[in-house]
Design goal:
Helix content: 55-70%
Number of strands: 2
Oligomer: single chain
Strand order of the largest sheet: 1-2
Radius of gyration: 38 Å
Shape: rod-shaped
Structural class: mainly alpha
Order of helices and strands: HEHEH
Largest sheet: 2 strands, parallel
Keywords: Coiled coil
Distance between the termini: 113 Å
Protein backbone atom coordinates (compact mmCIF):
# COMPACT_ATOMS: atom_id res chain seq x y z
CA UNK A 1 0.00 0.00 0.00
CA UNK A 2 2.84 2.41 0.83
CA UNK A 3 4.38 1.73 -2.55
CA UNK A 4 1.11 2.49 -4.32
CA UNK A 5 0.85 5.93 -2.71
CA UNK A 6 4.49 6.62 -3.46
CA UNK A 7 4.07 5.38 -7.02
CA UNK A 8 1.03 7.64 -7.56
CA UNK A 9 2.91 10.59 -6.11
CA UNK A 10 5.87 10.02 -8.45
CA UNK A 11 3.54 9.51 -11.42
CA UNK A 12 1.66 12.75 -10.56
CA UNK A 13 4.95 14.67 -10.31
CA UNK A 14 6.06 13.15 -13.62
CA UNK A 15 2.81 14.21 -15.33
CA UNK A 16 3.25 17.77 -14.02
CA UNK A 17 6.83 17.86 -15.33
CA UNK A 18 5.73 16.50 -18.74
CA UNK A 19 2.98 19.13 -18.94
CA UNK A 20 5.42 21.91 -17.99
CA UNK A 21 7.97 20.64 -20.54
CA UNK A 22 5.31 20.65 -23.29
CA UNK A 23 4.23 24.18 -22.41
CA UNK A 24 7.84 25.35 -22.19
CA UNK A 25 8.67 23.83 -25.61
CA UNK A 26 5.61 25.53 -27.12
CA UNK A 27 6.68 28.87 -25.63
CA UNK A 28 10.22 28.43 -26.97
CA UNK A 29 8.92 27.70 -30.50
CA UNK A 30 6.57 30.71 -30.36
CA UNK A 31 9.42 32.90 -29.09
CA UNK A 32 11.68 31.79 -31.96
CA UNK A 33 8.95 32.55 -34.50
CA UNK A 34 8.45 36.02 -33.00
CA UNK A 35 12.20 36.67 -33.08
CA UNK A 36 12.34 35.76 -36.78
CA UNK A 37 9.30 37.90 -37.54
CA UNK A 38 10.78 40.81 -35.59
CA UNK A 39 14.06 40.58 -37.53
CA UNK A 40 12.19 40.46 -40.84
CA UNK A 41 10.17 43.53 -39.85
CA UNK A 42 13.36 45.38 -38.84
CA UNK A 43 14.89 44.69 -42.25
CA UNK A 44 11.69 45.80 -43.97
CA UNK A 45 11.51 48.98 -41.88
CA UNK A 46 15.14 49.85 -42.62
CA UNK A 47 14.51 49.39 -46.35
CA UNK A 48 11.41 51.59 -46.19
CA UNK A 49 13.32 54.28 -44.28
CA UNK A 50 16.07 54.16 -46.89
CA UNK A 51 13.54 54.37 -49.73
CA UNK A 52 11.74 57.23 -48.02
CA UNK A 53 15.00 59.14 -47.56
CA UNK A 54 15.85 58.62 -51.24
CA UNK A 55 12.40 59.87 -52.27
CA UNK A 56 12.74 62.88 -49.98
CA UNK A 57 16.12 63.73 -51.53
CA UNK A 58 14.66 63.35 -55.03
CA UNK A 59 11.72 65.60 -54.12
CA UNK A 60 14.10 68.22 -52.73
CA UNK A 61 16.16 68.10 -55.94
CA UNK A 62 13.03 68.42 -58.09
CA UNK A 63 11.83 71.35 -56.00
CA UNK A 64 15.17 73.10 -56.39
CA UNK A 65 15.06 72.57 -60.16
CA UNK A 66 11.45 73.77 -60.32
CA UNK A 67 12.18 76.83 -58.19
CA UNK A 68 15.30 77.71 -60.16
CA UNK A 69 13.16 78.31 -63.23
CA UNK A 70 10.83 80.72 -61.42
CA UNK A 71 11.27 84.40 -60.74
CA UNK A 72 9.06 86.43 -58.44
CA UNK A 73 9.08 90.18 -58.96
CA UNK A 74 7.87 92.12 -55.94
CA UNK A 75 6.40 95.58 -55.72
CA UNK A 76 4.78 95.70 -59.16
CA UNK A 77 1.29 97.08 -59.45
CA UNK A 78 -1.28 95.11 -61.45
CA UNK A 79 -1.60 97.97 -63.93
CA UNK A 80 2.14 97.87 -64.75
CA UNK A 81 3.18 96.21 -68.01
CA UNK A 82 4.60 93.02 -66.49
CA UNK A 83 5.80 91.76 -69.89
CA UNK A 84 7.98 94.85 -70.30
CA UNK A 85 9.37 94.53 -66.75
CA UNK A 86 10.37 90.91 -67.34
CA UNK A 87 12.12 91.87 -70.58
CA UNK A 88 14.03 94.62 -68.74
CA UNK A 89 15.66 92.13 -66.37
CA UNK A 90 19.16 90.85 -67.06
CA UNK A 91 17.83 87.36 -67.64
CA UNK A 92 18.27 85.69 -70.99
CA UNK A 93 14.63 85.14 -71.81
CA UNK A 94 12.49 85.04 -74.87
CA UNK A 95 8.73 85.15 -74.85
CA UNK A 96 8.68 81.47 -75.80
CA UNK A 97 10.45 80.24 -72.65
CA UNK A 98 8.43 81.93 -69.95
CA UNK A 99 4.87 82.41 -68.84
CA UNK A 100 3.82 85.52 -66.97
CA UNK A 101 1.39 84.91 -64.17
CA UNK A 102 0.27 87.64 -61.81
CA UNK A 103 -0.17 86.12 -58.37
CA UNK A 104 -2.77 87.63 -56.08
CA UNK A 105 -1.21 88.79 -52.87
CA UNK A 106 -2.42 90.74 -49.86
CA UNK A 107 1.18 91.29 -48.75
CA UNK A 108 3.11 92.24 -51.89
CA UNK A 109 6.43 92.45 -50.05
CA UNK A 110 6.46 88.76 -49.21
CA UNK A 111 7.46 86.41 -52.04
CA UNK A 112 5.32 83.40 -52.75
CA UNK A 113 8.31 81.31 -53.76
CA UNK A 114 11.36 81.24 -56.00
CA UNK A 115 13.84 84.07 -55.88
CA UNK A 116 12.82 87.66 -55.33
CA UNK A 117 14.10 90.84 -56.85
CA UNK A 118 13.97 93.80 -54.42
CA UNK A 119 12.14 96.93 -55.52
CA UNK A 120 13.99 100.25 -55.86
CA UNK A 121 12.43 101.46 -52.63
CA UNK A 122 13.70 98.36 -50.74
CA UNK A 123 17.21 98.80 -52.18
CA UNK A 124 17.35 102.46 -51.11
CA UNK A 125 16.39 101.55 -47.51
Amino acid sequence: MKFTVLERSVQYGSEIMDDLRTKFDTLLRDNQKLKKENEALKVRMNKMESDMEAMKTKMDEEEIIQRSSNLVLLGLENSVDVQKDVQMTDLETTSSNYIIEVLPSKAPKKPVGGCSVPTNQEVEN
